[in-house]
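Lab notebook, bench 4. We co-purified these components, and the gel suggests they stay together. Before we commit to crystallization screens, I want a quick structural picture of the whole thing.
Request: model the full complex, all chains together.
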Amino acid sequence: MATAAAHQPARTQQHGAHDGTAGATGTEDAHQRAFDAAVAADERIEPRDWMPDAYRATLVRQIAQHAHSEIIGMQPEANWITRAPSLRRKAILMAKVQDEAGHGLYLYSAAETLGTGRDELLDKLHTGRQKYSSIFNYPTLTWADVGAIGWLVDGAAITNQVPLCRCSYGPYARAMIRICKEESFHQRQGYELLLALSRGTPEQHAMAQDAVDRWWWPSLMMFGPPDDESAHSAQSMDWKIKRHSNDELRQRFVDICVPQAESLGLTLPDPDLRWNEERGHHDFGPIDWTEFKEVLKGNGPCNEQRITQRRRAHDEGAWVREAAAAYAAKHSTAAGHGETGVEQA
Amino acid sequence: MTATTTATAAALALGDDALVLSHRLGEWAGHAPVLEEEVALANIALDLLGQARVLLSMAGDEDELAYLREERAFRNLQLVEQPNGDFAHTIARQLYFSTHQHLLYARLATGDGPFAGLAAKAVKEVAYHRDHAEQWTLRLGDGTDLSHQRMQRACDALWRFTGEMFQPVEGLDIDTEDMNAAWLESVGDVLRRATLTVPDGPQSGAWTAGAGRQGLHTEPFGRMLAEMQHLHRSHPGASW
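Here is the predicted assembly.
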């Protein structure tokens, strides 16, 4: 996709380097200049383009963490599939959890364009060397939590992800465009679920309020630490992986949620929340960063449960994956077919 | 009057099959052996739930029927209520049921009965379900020694529930003997290609023959319903 003149030297000279026709250092500098120019011109970096090692590493880390969040994020919602209170809601929830698996697949594919593999990334997730979003370490205790996750958690994810549709790395940006469309749909469904509860019986209304009370602060934590404590922010913004700071996006999210909460007929659990005429934004209370750090360290309410279930699914599925591989090997040799072995007489 | 009643009985039988199997497949969410199977199993579950909603709505209010009937009033086959077991059990159950459903809907789609419209749409979904089950039966049966053993065990364990699929259902004008023969041929062909042995036991025992259709179920079913209905029953009259 990136074809402007500024971007071309990187490719040309990369090939030159393989021929041994350019000195390593000089080539590296030219690559770096071409990369910087492409980023400055808002072009997309594509898998075969030269990129700084640190840029590649940052993207692998971020995309993998994003993919892991999609698949761990299936758990808190899948927890309610078998108990969904109407067939319509059950269908919506199943479709949503299925979409999340699909998002995980897109994102692992995007990460693989950077030279890593899904198996390797899953292994890092299972051994705790890569993380997933802190939010999925909170439990879904009632049906209303499914709505609160749709409205608040997906809402926060969308606020975070819409700018990623313009991220400098092409495969990631394109994955985000597809994902954001589906996420917006989920978010509206979550809002609608909460609205039905809020307008339902007193018990249903209370259930909705309780869920919002429990999910509000963890949702605000999804934007990451405050700007002055965010380790990767400045570099990611220079590389145009990130387009806005954590605090900026968090503020945007709060401003969006306040009127939505009002029309839902629910309150947000923050006594300091109020409109600030001067700033043109809502002020809000302090976030409990100690809790955030504890959850990230593995001490949240469901960290152990989530990773154990993921590992168990993977381990218990090993014989199935081995069977598929053995079958493919047998049938590709026998019939001279490709690796899939799907072909049958 | 009689026509409505028999159509209702058939809608309940077919609707309960789809509802209960969809629920079982929904239990896999987050537990599948590979991400692609998370997508596939949820996809099949959703198709079945869609069929269930149409069928139950032909018989009454879908939510009342799903959430407020007790175990003895459900008309599903015992096959579809069987617990997921390992992946091989789930696949064997899918192979047996989707082959049956495909034959059934293909026949209903050509008629002009009350189910022709639904069957014409559903037969396309079910063809995909059957293909999925067949492909996995081949992979597990003709994969490793371990997967072969597990697939054979699953096929054997579920065999005694297959006869019930060919008991006549009130309100369905289907030649069930002919369908059983077609089913045996189709399933037998897949099992043989998967290097598996077609189970040689009876397709149904004295207890299982036609039992689910009469509201006689297996023990795990009551627990499944308890989970499925709990929230709905806890809030009588609420809408969701």
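Chain B has one domain: 3-234. Worth comparing against the SEC data before the next meeting. Residues 116-141 of chain B form the longest helix (26 residues).
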